[in-house]
Amino acid sequence: MPTLVHGTPAPACSAPEIKPTNPLNPQGIKSCCACPETKTARDECFMRNDSDAASEACKDLVQKHIACMRGYGFNI
């Protein structure tokens, strides 16, 4: 920490943190909260189907959710 001439510490000055804005997600929505409609439909599909059939049965819903997430700029 820098000190002044008489040995007292200088007040800490911090510049405000500037976060870059994602033009696809200007509100800053977190990935857990984005696309609730497609997320719910995908999750319900996996709950309705057994684990062996779920991957194929829910394929379209998974792709829709991925497309929605990418629309917000998330790289999944």
Shape: elongated
Structural class: mainly alpha
Q: Radius of gyration, Cα only, in angstroms?
A: 23 Å
The SSE string, one letter per element, is HHH
How would a textbook summarize the main sheet?
none
Spatial gap, N to C terminus: 42 Å
> How many runs of DSSP E, i.e. beta strands?
0
Helix amount, in percent?
40-55%
Mean pLDDT: 87
GO molecular function, one term: copper chaperone activity
Subcellular location: Mitochondrion intermembrane space
Pfam family, one: COX17
Main location: mitochondrion
Describe this structure in words.
This protein is mostly helical. It has a domain at 36-71. The chain is built from three helices and no strands. The protein has helices spanning 36-48, 51-57, 59-71. Helix 1 (36-48) runs antiparallel to helix 3 (59-71). The longest helix has 13 residues, at 36-48. The two termini are 42 Å apart. 5% of the residues are buried.
